[in-house]
Amino acid sequence: PGVPSIILNRESEVRGYCRGWPTTFTTAKGSWITDTSGRKYLDFFAGAGSLNYGHNHPVLKEALLDYLSKDGITHGLDMATVAKKEFLETFEEKLLKPRGLDYKVQFPGPTGTNSVEAALKLARKATGREAIINFTNAFHGMTLGALSVTGNSMKRAGAGIPLVHATPMPYDNYFGGVTEDFQWFERVLDDSGSGLNRPAAVIVETVQGEGGVNVARYEWLRALADLCARRDILLIVDDVQMGCGRTGPFFSFEAAGIKPDIVTISKSISGYGLPMALTLFKPELDIWTPGEHNGTFRGNNPAFVTARLAIETFWADNAIELETARKGEKIAERFEALAQEIGGLQHRGRGMVQGLVFDEPELASAACEIAFNNGMLAETSGPSDEVVKLLPPLTLTDEELNLGLDILSDAARQ
Ligand code: PMP
C-alpha cells in the first residue's frame, strides 16, 4: 500500500516512522497492527512504549465505549470530574499505598515532555537553584528545558545554543563497565573551580531507552540516590518509558529500593495509547501556587477512565511483573545465544526492554528493514541508531514472542 502521497508531500520532512515502515496502517489489536492491504505486522514497537497492554485491549475498550456512549466528559482542564476522582483513588489505593509511596500528583499536560518540564521547573523553584545534572545519552523530550537535559546532538542541534544550563555526567557503564563509585561526582561538587554550579536536581532514567538500552545497575542508582540525599539535591527519575511495568515493577525504580523526590510518568499510563502524563512529587515539594503551571490539555478524561481500568486490570497483583521478568529473560537468552552465534553483536536489557547492539549501525537498520518485510515492527535507538530496541506489549503471548524473536533472529543473521 505504500505511504500516501499527501503524507509524503504535505507532512513536514520531520516525519520519521513512515520511512522505516513504508506502508499505511489502519487497525490494530493486541500485539498486531494491520495495513491497508490487510497485511498484519507483529508490533514490537508498541507506540514507542505507550502500549504496554497492547492495542485496543478489550476491557479498556469496553470501558471507553461505555463512557463515551453516556456522554462522559472528554475535555476537562483541571476541573473536578468523576473520571479524574476515580483515577486518583485507584492510583492511590492500588499503586501508591501498597508500595509505601506518598506522592502528590500533578497533571502537567498531555505528554512525557510536559511531565519533564514540570519536574525541572518544580526542582528549580523548590531549591532556588538553577543547574541540573543529566547523563550521557539521556533522553527527556523535545521542548527546550527537556531538550537541554537530553544528550542526542542531532535532536539538540536545531534548537540553537546555549540551551538551559545542564551538565552531563557519565551514565553507569559509560566507561566500559568500570564501577564508578561517584568519587568523580563528589569531587566536582566540592571543587569551587570545577565550573559546576550547585545543582537543583539530578534527572535520570533507570534504563536509557532512546539512548540505546543502557541499563543502570541497582547499586549505581542507590549510590546516586544516596549522594542526592546527602547533598540536598533533588532526584528526578524519568519513568516515562520505563515506568508502567516496562522493566517489571510498575515504577522502574522500585527494584532499586529508592524513592525519588520527583517522578515523571506518561506513555503507557492511559493503557490505551491516549495522551496522559503525571508528575509525582513528595508532598513537601507541593509548593506550586494555584495556576502557576497550567495547560489546556491536563484533563483527558477518557484517558483517566482507561488508566484506572488498566491499573485495576493489571496491577491488582504482581502477575504482570512476574510475566515481564519471565518473558524478558526469554528474550535475553535468545539474544545472548544470537550474539554468540553470529558475532558483531551484544545484548543489553532489563525486563521487557531488550536491545540487540550491532557493531555496525547500518546493520541494525537493515535488520529492522528485513524484519518489517517479514511482518514485524521494531525500531532502532542509541547515539548512532546501532541498537535494535524491542518494546513488545507486556501482554503478548509466548507464541507471539517466539515468532517475533524468530523473525528478528533471521533478520540479524541476514
Ligand atoms: N522521557 C523519556 C525517558 C522518554 O523516553 C520520552 C519519549 N521517548 C520522553 C521523556 C518524552 O515523552 P513524549 O514524547 O511523550 O513527550
Main sheet summary: 7 strands, mixed
Bound chemical compounds: 4'-deoxy-4'-aminopyridoxal-5'-phosphate
What overall form do the CA principal axes indicate?
globular
Number of DSSP strand runs: 17
Terminal residue distance = 25 Å
Instruction: Supply Rg.
Output: 21 Å
Q: Strand content of the residues, in percent?
A: 15-25%
Q: Compute the average pLDDT.
A: 95
Helix content: 25-40%
Summed up, the helix count is 14
Widest beta sheet: strand line-up: 4-12-11-10-7-5-6
Based on secondary structure, the structural category is: alpha/beta
Low-confidence stretches are: none
Family: Belongs to the class-III pyridoxal-phosphate-dependent aminotransferase family.
Pathway: Amine and polyamine biosynthesis; ectoine biosynthesis; L-ectoine from L-aspartate 4-semialdehyde: step 1/3
Keywords: Aminotransferase, Pyridoxal phosphate, Transferase
Organism: Lolliginicoccus lacisalsi
